[in-house]
Design a protein that fits this description.
71% of the residues lie in helices and 0% in strands. With 277 residues, it is mainly alpha-helical. The protein has one domain: Ribonucleotide Reductase, subunit A (Orthogonal Bundle). Helix 1 crosses helix 8 and helix 1 packs across helix 9. The longest helix has 32 residues. The protein starts with 28 loop residues before the first helix and ends with a helix. The model has no long low-confidence stretch (mean pLDDT 90).
């Protein structure tokens, strides 16, 4: 089934006109190149949201509150993120062929948007959605902290605020279906882990691959090239990553309780600081 068109939204807090694109300035040198890969790859993923929104709407067919929110609010805001990031890339790095790179990306990535990647139950899928929003909220919070360009910093801050709000919606829907389906902590943990592996895996590599192909034509993209880009990205964002926020958002669907969370969050945060990014 094809992509779904967004309906008009009354909740969008900002538009592309909220930013002063004439003030964009491009970071130079190695740090600027690392930033380029982060922003360009993110623009690909965000602007592809319509490809899998239909799967979510089909998954929650009959629940008008959720399907209505997905079509009228979540999808338009996510697509706006992609358009804004695309505009930033094309403004800061005008020599980059964004259209050509995205066309190559979507040709390879489209099969990964299939419905079978969803979790088997509605509660587990909503838990999985919480992980996605946790990941994006953490990424854009990091980007807003480390960007030297005030336009990029503001754009990332606006997107992060949207993603945190999206997380709250998905979490509320998760709680409703968890109660109805009586999903145990083990099933929830499995959904969280499954989505974490997807975030860190092939999806990002495919995006980076096609950014690299247009950025450095003629050079082979292999595991060595990808690891080099990943190392550079990690070095750039490590000091700015919101580890505590990330861990709190990740663990919340497990319903650990205040006393257990008081112990678990610092421990998991310490591990995360060693592993993420």
């Amino acid at each position: 089934m094809g992509a779904i068109a967004p309906t008009s939204s009354t909740e969008q807090r900002w538009t592309l006109d909220s930013l002063d694109w004439g003030r964009v300035h491009r970071d130079q040198g190695e740090e600027g190149e690392r930033l380029f890969y982060l922003v360009a790859a993110a623009s690909f993923m965000e602007i592809t949201t319509d490809r899998y929104t239909r799967n979510l709407i089909d998954k929650f067919a009959g629940d008008d509150e959720i399907t209505g929110w997905l079509a009228a609010h979540w999808l338009p805001e996510e697509l706006q993120h992609g358009e804004a990031l695309r505009k930033y890339v094309e403004t800061a790095w005008p020599e980059f062929d964004w259209r050509g790179a995205y066309a190559d990306f979507i040709a390879e990535f489209a099969p990964y948007c299939a419905g079978e990647r969803l979790e088997p139950s509605r509660s587990r899928e909503m838990a999985s959605r919480c992980v996605v929003e946790m990941g994006t909220a953490s990424f854009y919070t990091t980007l807003s902290r480390m960007a030297r360009d005030p336009v990029l910093a503001r754009l990332a801050q606006l997107i992060a605020q949207d993603e945190i709000r999206h997380y709250k919606h998905f979490y509320r829907y998760f709680r409703r279906y968890q109660a109805a389906e009586r999903t145990g902590r083990g099933g929830i943990a499995k959904a969280l882990w499954h989505r974490l592996r997807m975030i860190a895996g092939e999806d990002n590599e495919i995006a980076v691959k096609h950014v690299f192909a247009r950025r450095q034509p003629g050079r082979a993209f292999d595991r060595r090239a990808y690891r080099s880009i990943r190392r550079g990205s990690s070095a750039l964002i490590r000091r700015h990553f919101p580890h505590r926020m990330c861990v709190q958002m990740l663990l919340r669907p497990l319903g650990l309780g205040r006393r257990v969370s008081h112990v678990a969050v610092p421990v998991v945060e310490a591990v995360a600081r060693r592993l993420v990014p």
